[in-house]
Amino acid sequence: MNAKSAFSGQILVVMLLLLTFSVNGQQIVGQWKTIDDETKKERSIVEIYKVGDRYAGKIIKLQRSLEDDPDPVCNSCDPDDARYLQKIIGMKIIQDMTFDRSSNEYVDGTILDPESGSEYQCKLWLSDEGTLKVRGYIAFFYRTQTWLPVSMTN
Length: 154
Hints:
By secondary structure, the protein is an alpha+beta fold. It has helices at about 5-25, 150-154, and strands at about 30-35, 40-50, 55-60, 90-100, 105-115, 120-125, 130-140, 140-150. Strands 1-2-3-4-5-6-7-8 form an 8-stranded antiparallel beta barrel.
Protein backbone atom coordinates (compact mmCIF):
# COMPACT_ATOMS: atom_id res chain seq x y z
CA MET A 1 0.00 0.00 0.00
CA ASN A 2 1.47 3.34 -0.97
CA ALA A 3 1.28 6.54 1.10
CA LYS A 4 -1.32 8.12 -1.20
CA SER A 5 -3.82 5.26 -0.87
CA ALA A 6 -3.24 5.03 2.90
CA PHE A 7 -3.92 8.78 3.21
CA SER A 8 -7.06 8.44 1.05
CA GLY A 9 -8.26 5.62 3.28
CA GLN A 10 -7.76 7.74 6.40
CA ILE A 11 -9.70 10.63 4.86
CA LEU A 12 -12.56 8.26 4.00
CA VAL A 13 -12.68 6.93 7.57
CA VAL A 14 -12.70 10.47 9.02
CA MET A 15 -15.46 11.55 6.61
CA LEU A 16 -17.58 8.51 7.52
CA LEU A 17 -17.12 9.21 11.24
CA LEU A 18 -18.11 12.86 10.80
CA LEU A 19 -21.16 11.85 8.79
CA THR A 20 -22.15 9.32 11.44
CA PHE A 21 -21.88 11.93 14.21
CA SER A 22 -23.83 14.57 12.29
CA VAL A 23 -26.59 12.12 11.34
CA ASN A 24 -26.72 10.72 14.89
CA GLY A 25 -27.27 14.18 16.28
CA GLN A 26 -30.23 14.80 14.01
CA GLN A 27 -32.14 11.52 14.13
CA ILE A 28 -34.76 12.93 16.48
CA VAL A 29 -35.57 15.79 14.10
CA GLY A 30 -39.06 15.24 12.70
CA GLN A 31 -42.60 14.59 13.82
CA TRP A 32 -43.47 12.25 16.69
CA LYS A 33 -46.82 10.89 17.83
CA THR A 34 -47.33 11.00 21.60
CA ILE A 35 -49.37 8.23 23.20
CA ASP A 36 -51.35 8.49 26.45
CA ASP A 37 -49.83 6.23 29.13
CA GLU A 38 -53.20 5.04 30.42
CA THR A 39 -55.56 4.97 27.42
CA LYS A 40 -52.85 4.13 24.85
CA LYS A 41 -54.54 6.60 22.48
CA GLU A 42 -52.80 9.26 20.42
CA ARG A 43 -52.56 12.59 22.26
CA SER A 44 -50.58 14.88 19.99
CA ILE A 45 -47.99 15.31 17.28
CA VAL A 46 -44.76 16.99 18.40
CA GLU A 47 -42.28 18.35 15.90
CA ILE A 48 -38.67 18.25 17.04
CA TYR A 49 -36.28 20.62 15.31
CA LYS A 50 -32.78 22.00 15.64
CA VAL A 51 -32.11 25.55 16.87
CA GLY A 52 -28.41 26.34 16.50
CA ASP A 53 -26.63 23.52 18.36
CA ARG A 54 -29.68 22.63 20.47
CA TYR A 55 -32.97 20.84 19.92
CA ALA A 56 -36.51 21.90 20.71
CA GLY A 57 -40.00 20.55 20.16
CA LYS A 58 -43.44 22.06 19.71
CA ILE A 59 -46.95 20.64 19.57
CA ILE A 60 -48.29 20.91 16.04
CA LYS A 61 -51.49 18.87 16.46
CA LEU A 62 -53.75 17.73 19.30
CA GLN A 63 -56.03 14.74 19.14
CA ARG A 64 -59.30 16.00 20.64
CA SER A 65 -62.67 14.42 21.34
CA LEU A 66 -65.90 16.27 20.54
CA GLU A 67 -66.39 17.45 24.13
CA ASP A 68 -62.82 18.83 24.40
CA ASP A 69 -61.85 22.42 23.64
CA PRO A 70 -60.52 22.23 20.05
CA ASP A 71 -57.93 24.97 20.66
CA PRO A 72 -56.97 24.93 24.37
CA VAL A 73 -54.59 27.26 26.16
CA CYS A 74 -52.12 26.46 28.92
CA ASN A 75 -54.09 27.76 31.90
CA SER A 76 -52.21 25.35 34.20
CA CYS A 77 -48.82 26.83 33.31
CA ASP A 78 -47.04 28.98 35.88
CA PRO A 79 -48.26 32.59 35.49
CA ASP A 80 -44.57 33.66 35.36
CA ASP A 81 -43.99 31.36 32.35
CA ALA A 82 -44.35 33.08 28.95
CA ARG A 83 -46.49 30.11 27.85
CA TYR A 84 -49.18 30.87 30.45
CA LEU A 85 -52.56 31.23 28.69
CA GLN A 86 -50.91 30.65 25.30
CA LYS A 87 -52.37 28.22 22.78
CA ILE A 88 -51.09 24.69 23.22
CA ILE A 89 -51.01 24.07 19.47
CA GLY A 90 -47.76 25.67 18.35
CA MET A 91 -46.36 25.75 21.91
CA LYS A 92 -42.71 24.89 22.47
CA ILE A 93 -42.75 22.13 25.09
CA ILE A 94 -39.18 20.83 24.69
CA GLN A 95 -36.29 23.29 25.07
CA ASP A 96 -32.51 23.44 25.14
CA MET A 97 -31.71 19.78 24.46
CA THR A 98 -28.09 19.03 23.54
CA PHE A 99 -26.71 15.86 22.00
CA ASP A 100 -24.28 13.94 24.22
CA ARG A 101 -22.16 11.72 21.98
CA SER A 102 -20.82 9.67 24.89
CA SER A 103 -24.28 8.45 25.89
CA ASN A 104 -25.98 8.89 22.48
CA GLU A 105 -28.73 10.85 24.27
CA TYR A 106 -30.18 14.33 24.15
CA VAL A 107 -29.83 15.91 27.59
CA ASP A 108 -29.80 19.08 29.71
CA GLY A 109 -33.13 20.43 28.47
CA THR A 110 -36.66 20.66 29.79
CA ILE A 111 -40.09 19.40 28.83
CA LEU A 112 -43.43 20.98 29.74
CA ASP A 113 -46.62 19.03 30.36
CA PRO A 114 -49.16 21.65 29.24
CA GLU A 115 -52.02 19.71 30.83
CA SER A 116 -50.57 20.00 34.35
CA GLY A 117 -48.38 23.05 33.72
CA SER A 118 -45.40 21.19 35.19
CA GLU A 119 -41.93 21.50 33.68
CA TYR A 120 -39.38 18.72 34.10
CA GLN A 121 -35.75 18.05 33.30
CA CYS A 122 -35.67 15.99 30.12
CA LYS A 123 -33.66 13.29 28.42
CA LEU A 124 -34.39 11.86 24.95
CA TRP A 125 -32.95 8.84 23.17
CA LEU A 126 -33.78 6.65 20.21
CA SER A 127 -34.62 3.01 20.83
CA ASP A 128 -33.39 0.18 18.63
CA GLU A 129 -36.92 -0.03 17.20
CA GLY A 130 -36.79 3.58 15.98
CA THR A 131 -39.10 5.00 18.63
CA LEU A 132 -38.22 8.02 20.74
CA LYS A 133 -37.89 7.54 24.48
CA VAL A 134 -38.84 10.71 26.36
CA ARG A 135 -38.00 10.93 30.06
CA GLY A 136 -39.17 13.77 32.27
CA TYR A 137 -37.72 13.82 35.77
CA ILE A 138 -37.27 15.70 39.00
CA ALA A 139 -34.39 14.37 41.12
CA PHE A 140 -34.83 10.57 41.26
CA PHE A 141 -38.49 10.55 40.20
CA TYR A 142 -39.14 10.11 36.50
CA ARG A 143 -41.59 8.94 33.87
CA THR A 144 -40.61 7.65 30.45
CA GLN A 145 -42.89 7.71 27.44
CA THR A 146 -42.45 6.13 24.03
CA TRP A 147 -43.22 8.36 21.06
CA LEU A 148 -43.70 6.95 17.58
CA PRO A 149 -42.32 8.52 14.42
CA VAL A 150 -45.21 9.88 12.36
CA SER A 151 -43.81 8.19 9.25
CA MET A 152 -44.17 4.82 11.06
CA THR A 153 -47.81 5.41 11.90
CA ASN A 154 -49.19 6.76 8.60
